[in-house]
């Protein structure tokens, strides 16, 4: 990892919004225990649909980790994603739905900044920090404008971001962190995972590197290490609020976690920043 922030190109940043989603099976394996956000959004959807009708948008739906629980809850769900491998995994899961559930699910390959639906949605959700793969203000504003266009009047938009943590952002970029040994879910190859990152305060982009080193049964390297780039735009609550207002949304809820803790009094200690807004 270079110490020179100027050597991190836009092309490198863009690759960080694509590479983590090439291996759908590994992605699902790594995040298989992440369930709190799914529970939160299922409850939100049930609450919303008590007094509204229309489809739910699962924006950046990936392989369907949220989409299929929503379908099983009885909702009509449209999943939108631009990653072909992730959508392919979602289509495989879709084939396992019962004949009665399958018509409730639609998958579309599209960019979150530009899509058009025939039917206005009642609720749009962008889960698991998906908004942070939009690198600049213009990208985020286009995302919000497109979501607003595809929502019915008074429709809801919900999303979460990983909050900026100054201490974590300032970690030594030349060290490796988070060492974990695991087996690839498909190949069963034994691998050691580590990560590091560098934060560019000008672009407000966090450039992460995820390292996958094949090892033998005693932990010795047994093949070439693979590096996956991951890029996250860092977002603070005040700028999120300004961009929502600029695109026709009004905040109706901000939370510090997926348990409903209000963000206002817990900004510094929040594990997540969760936003719920209404189209006005």
The number of distinct structural domains comes to 2
Mean pLDDT: 94
CATH superfamily of the largest domain: Vaccinia Virus protein VP39
Helix-residue proportion: 25-40%
Tally of helical runs: 8
Residue windows where pLDDT falls under 50 for at least 5 positions? 1-6
What is the 3D shape?
globular
- CATH class membership of the largest domain: Alpha Beta
**Beta-strand segment tally:** 11
In CATH, the architecture of the largest domain is 3-Layer(aba) Sandwich
Q: What value does the Rg take, in angstroms?
A: 19 Å
The structural class is alpha/beta
Quote the beta fraction.
Answer: 25-35%
- Oligomeric form: single chain
Largest sheet: 7 strands, mixed
Q: Could you provide a short overview of the structure?
A:
The protein is α/β, with parallel strands linked by helices and 280 residues long.
What does this structure look like?
The protein is an alpha/beta fold. The protein folds into two domains: 5-20 and 165-233, no CATH class; 34-162 and 235-279, Vaccinia Virus protein VP39 (Rossmann fold), CATH 3.40.50. 25% of the residues lie in helices and 29% in strands. The chain has helices spanning 10-15, 24-30, 36-49, 67-72, 84-94, 137-149, 166-169, 237-246, and strands at residues 56-59, 77-81, 105-109, 121-126, 151-161, 177-183, 190-200, 205-214, 226-233, 249-255, 273-279. Strand 2 (77-81), helix 5 (84-94) and strand 3 (105-109) form a beta-alpha-beta unit. It starts with 9 loop residues before the first helix and ends with a strand.
